[in-house]
Amino acid sequence: PQRFAPVEPRPSVWISLKTDSRREADRRADAAWSEALAGWEAALVVATGDGESRYIAAQTVAKQRGFTFLPVEQVAALPIEDMVQRIEVSLNQDGTAIEPHLAAGILGTAQKPKINLSKALETYWQYSGDKTRGKSADQIRRWENPCKKAFANLIAIIDDKDLDQITGDEMLQFSDWWWDKITLEGLTPNSGNKDFFHIGSTLRLVVKKKRLGLILPLDGPSFSEGEKGARAPFAEDWIRDKILAPGAMAGLNTEARCLVLGMINTGYRHSEAQGLRKDHIHLDANVPHISIEPEGRTLKTSSSRRIIPLAGVSLEAFRACPEGFHRYRDKAGLSATVNKFLRENGLTPTTGHTFYGLRHSFEDRVLDRDVDERIRRDLMGHALTRERYGKGASLEKLAEVVQFVAM
Q1: DSSP label at 279?
Q2: CA distances for 198 relative to 147, 151, 203, 211, angstroms
Q3: Residue 107 CB coordination number (10 Å)
Q4: CA angle in degrees (0–180, nearest 5) for 264-267-273
Q5: From edge to edge, which strands make up the β-sheet containing 289-292?
Q6: 127-167: per-residue pLDDT in tens?
Q7: Strand, helix or coil at 132?
Q8: pTM of this structure
Q9: Which residues face 282 on adjacent strands?
Q10: pLDDT means per 10 residues in the chain (407 residues)?
Q11: Beta-strand pair 281-282/306-309
């Protein structure tokens, strides 16, 4: 094709298929032609493309000629016979001069592209399809936001540097900034550690996928987190006397109120409740129940997929919202709305309590009644500490347990 003339001066090209069988030649021809086209395409990009595409294409050119791409300084350090071989393959048709587009890949003269921090983050999303597959839009948003925040913090402190310009001293500067922030604002050390984790995992993947060969100063200090505090559960009498007191939850919108009441006797994660569809809510069954399914979103673990019987205030809550919680499905804002309401209305015993503590309260009640561990884990969506055998307890048996602890 004429458009490859800048990188292929021969008007016609003969390619040996290395067979005397017409049938075998027909079979090999398409692959040989495709390989030739790919090589010319890569060479053309090396000759005319931008920095990043040239660097990637140069690696393809090297591979097409049977070489592993190496930066020029590594090529120069090869044994003399290997280096001469690369030079010979890089010559033009007359053998009189080096072809620049061949040298870029075979001799490694292609320059590494300049990628700054913001460009690296944009690139990372392109390589993260395996991490977002099956997630809802809200799950993707919540997965992306901590990474965006981490990069915004780093850029604010060291500027939007090219990756190869980032120094260990600048990462220490970022660490010092985080420690001051933790100290002054009373944050947990984990807040800073999360930033370092997201920055490190993002940049390592980009460097690997882009074959940049950079060694970045990402193994900097982490902050000791000490003993982790568990989410505080609500006591039974607090739930009964405060949260379930007549009119106590009336000021909260219907869907948020029903979702909270639904958690009291199910122990579901609020994200699981937000993902419920109409066909996941079975109020007319012999045993009313909900099914937690990976539909339209991913679940936290494979053990999260389960059936939970409904009883007490949770059953009444779902009768008021029989089609689920459309207002909060695949949307942010539920936790902020509910926790703000509980705090402002004196419905949390301490500032450390959030409504997620109702899940832990349910688990505590089940535990206090000496319920079998397998049943406890099946209700909570926790993995077993041993291999899982059989289907587990029947819905009727699960209903007996839930009814036993229901409020």
Answers
A1: G
A2: 5, 8, 9, 20
A3: 24
A4: 95
A5: 281-282, 289-292, 306-309
A6: 888 888 888 888 888 889 999 999 999 999 999 999 989 99
A7: helix
A8: 0.58
A9: 289
A10: 74 86 90 76 67 75 87 92 92 81 86 86 89 84 91 94 90 87 80 91 90 79 64 91 94 94 93 91 94 82 88 95 90 86 93 90 90 86 68 86 91
A11: unpaired
Query: Which residues, in sequence order, are CB contacts of 285 under 8 Å at separation 6+?
Result: none
Q: What is the rounded distance in angstroms from the CA atom of residue 288 to the CA atom of residue 280?
A: 11
Per DSSP, the three-state class of 356 is coil
Question: Amino acid identity, residue 263?
Answer: M
Q: Are 48 and 104 in contact (CB under 8 A)?
A: no
Q: Is 162 helix (H, G, I), strand (E, B) or coil?
A: strand
Question: Are residues 335 and 315 in contact, defined by beta-carbon separation less than 8 angstroms?
Answer: no
Contact assessment for residue 395 and residue 287, using Cβ atoms and an 8 Å cutoff? yes
Q: What's the token pair of residue 65? A: 């000629």
Q: How far is CA 123 from CA 131, 145, 195, 207, 298, in A?
A: 14, 15, 18, 10, 24
Share of the chain above pLDDT 70, in %: 94
Helix axes 137-158, 189-209, angle to 10 degrees: 90
Distance CA 7, CA 49 (A): 13
Coil, helix or strand at residue 79: coil
Q: How far, in Å, CA of 153 to CA of 361, rounded?
A: 36
For 95-253, where are the alpha helices, taking DSSP H only? Answer: 100-106, 117-126, 129-132, 137-158, 168-185, 189-209, 236-238
Q: How far apart are CA 365 and CA 261, in angstroms?
A: 16
Nearest to 16 by CA among 4, 7, 24: 24
Phi-psi region of 284 (alpha: psi -120 to 50; beta: other; left: phi over 0): alpha
Can you say how many angstroms the Cα of residue 84 is from the centroid of all Cα atoms in its chain? 45
